[in-house]
Design goal:
It is built from 3 helices and 3 strands. It is an alpha+beta fold. A 3-stranded antiparallel sheet has the order 2-1-3. The chain is globular and about 35 Å long.
Length: about 70
């Protein structure tokens, strides 16, 4: 199995822990793009480089857990 398919088979549980109020518009847009809108809301996304990049941009507002998909 290639590295990409191993990464793609894992999932990330992303939880919004801090508010985006006062954050720059680009960070607010990233929160929305991840599908988050309320505090303590959690979403599950595939572990891809694109999602990892979005997480890195707003990691100070999130909790992230790796789960096996």
């Amino acid at each position: 199995m290639s590295t990409e398919s191993k990464i793609g088979s894992r999932k990330l549980k992303i939880t919004l822990r801090r508010s985006g109020i006062g954050a720059p518009e680009s960070q607010k847009a990233t929160i929305k793009a991840l599908g988050l809108s309320k505090l303590n809301q959690a979403v599950v996304h595939a572990d891809t480089p694109q999602v990892r990049g979005m997480i890195r941009k707003i990691e100070h507002l999130l909790d992230v857990e790796e789960i096996d998909g």
